[in-house]
Write a structure and sequence with these properties.
The complex is a heterodimer of chains A (135) and B (330). Chain A is 73% helix and 0% strand. Chain A contains five helices and no strands. Chain A has 135 residues and is mainly α. In chain A, α2 packs antiparallel against α4 and α4 packs antiparallel against α5. Chain B is an alpha+beta fold and 330 residues long. In chain B, the strands form three sheets. Chain B has a five-stranded antiparallel β-sheet with strand order 1-2-3-5-4, with helices on both faces. In chain B, a hairpin with a 2-residue loop joins β2 and β3. In chain B, α7 packs antiparallel against α10 and α10 packs across α11. The longest helix of chain B is centred in the last third of the chain and has 28 residues. The chains are: A mainly alpha (135), B alpha+beta (330).
Chain lengths: 135, 330
């Protein structure tokens, strides 16, 4: 059983209230209210997209590292960072595409209209969908 | 013991030759404040900007390399830049302890637009945009010709040292960011070597004041000035995070790299290899990513509950995606 209304509904209602505040605000007050609306939007996207993004990150990193995706994102990222630092992945051709695929998911949550996102997607598809990054 | 601002400002106004007509706080952080002072003089009203830091920085923090630039040093830099023909506000007075405002200086107010979104997209700035990349190049050439010997207190870092410093800051956060790790690894392979110059340190859209008719009106925010390779300043202006949506115009969201480099050469700047520019652009995104994480972490640790500071942590992923894109063309 999940909460009724959903967390998304609650956040949506809070956003509506902030929109009303924004309509009457100016200057710094308006700026901060918009930032707060952005924070709510980001949280809602994470609720909606976060689980799938985490699962994909686990798959991508587990494949790259030759480990079990069940280890979870935190552990896999920690191990990935260790291996990058050690130099073991210096010549790994699939590393940039793997990082890019995971970052695309992250920026879709954090800032979906960001200009760098479109460029990254274009690079990913022009890489021909090879290796773990291409989907 | 410091006199309250309410007492100190009218005294300051009198010292500057006028009566205090109005005071407006323009911005304020924990460590720094900016005020608009409107002075009434015989000839009319005069608008001045007061920058102050309430407490004098602790000696340890003022050590070159850590802590913010002392405001007196900032004022000296701006004055030197002005002498060299760089468009900057005129410094009117550097204050002393006796003025009762802590570390502070006063400068003339300059009019113009600083909002990146407007400079980059507003139709009324079309003409200004056309020559802006070149003007930035020429301006940076003048800044880079300032004699570093006159500012021995500034921190120095060549490309490799700046990379290492950024890595130290990242490691202090204790976060696992694979894209940043890859950036550190990849950029450490071949940091370019170049002569070290006096750098503005934060030359980007957002810190440039532009007027629709006359273009570049003033270069602001000198607090990150340091000594390093010229390409660092040129590349920072090209970092995608402050192209304000106009990714197709790599220089500040308003121009092309060729225009920037032409202006730089025309202004007497040394030749800069495109490869070096691209390396520094990648470092720029790497640094910005780390800065976002640091600002967020500091805010959370201080229990500020600032939505602005919390959200800036989420901008690190933009910087990381830009970093990957930038590394691809190295």
């Amino acid at each position: 059983m999940t909460g009724f209304p959903s967390a998304d509904d609650l956040l949506d209602a809070a956003a509506r209230r902030l929109e009303e505040v924004a309509a009457e605000a100016a200057g710094r007050e308006l700026f901060l209210t918009r930032v707060a609306l952005g924070a709510l939007d980001t949280a809602r996207r994470e609720l909606r997209l976060g689980a799938a993004a985490d699962a994909r990150a686990c798959e991508v990193f587990a494949t790259l590292l030759g480990l079990d995706p069940g280890l979870g994102r935190e552990a896999l990222e920690a191990e990935l960072c260790r291996r990058i630092r050690s130099g073991r992945l210096d010549a790994a051709p699939e590393l940039p595409a793997a990082l890019r695929a995971v970052l695309i998911d992250q920026v879709e949550i954090d800032q979906p209209r960001y200009s760098g996102l479109a460029e990254a997607k274009a690079r990913l598809s022009s890489a021909g969908g090879s290796g773990s990054g291409g989907r | 013991m410091e006199t309250s601002i309410a007492e100190a400002l009218p005294r300051l106004a009198a010292r500057l030759g006028g009566g205090l007509a109005r005071v407006e706080r323009l911005s304020g952080g924990a460590s720094q404040e900016t005020f608009l002072l409107v002075l009434k003089e015989a000839a009319g009203e005069r608008e001045l900007i007061l920058r102050r830091r309430p407490q004098v920085a602790a000696p340890a923090a003022a050590e070159a390399g850590s802590g913010p630039l002392p405001l007196a040093l900032e004022a000296r830099l701006i004055a030197a830049a002005r002498e060299a023909g760089v468009p900057v506000p005129q410094v009117v007075a550097v204050l002393a302890a006796a003025d009762g405002l802590g570390e502070a200086y006063v400068m003339e107010r300059v009019e113009g637009e600083t909002l990146g979104g407007r400079i980059v997209r507003d139709p009324s700035f079309e003409t200004a945009r056309a020559g802006l990349a070149r003007a930035c190049g020429e301006t940076l050439a003048r800044i880079h010709r300032l004699p570093v010997e006159r500012f021995p207190e500034l921190r120095r870092a060549d490309a490799g040292e700046e990379l290492a410093r950024t890595e130290e800051l990242y490691r202090s956060l204790g976060l696992d960011r694979p894209a940043l790790e890859w950036g550190f690894r990849r950029l450490a392979r071949d940091p370019p070597s170049a002569r070290l110059r006096l750098l503005h340190g934060d030359f980007r859209t957002g810190n440039l004041m532009v007027r629709p008719e006359t273009g570049l009106a003033a270069v602001l925010d000198w607090e990150l000035a340091h000594i390093g390779p010229a390409a660092a300043d040129l590349a920072w202006l090209c970092v995608n995070s402050w192209r304000f949506g106009r990714s197709d115009r790599p220089v500040g969201g308003f121009g092309l790299r060729e225009e920037l480099l032409e202006g730089y050469a025309a202004g007497g700047g040394e030749p800069v290899e495109t490869a070096d520019l691209l390396w520094h652009e990648a470092l720029g995104s790497l640094k910005w990513g780390v800065m976002c994480l640091m600002m967020c972490r500091a805010s959370l640790a201080a229990g500020e509950r600032s939505v602005e500071r919390a959200m800036i942590g989420r901008r690190a992923s933009e910087a990381e995606i830009d970093l990957l894109n930038a590394l691809e063309v190295l």
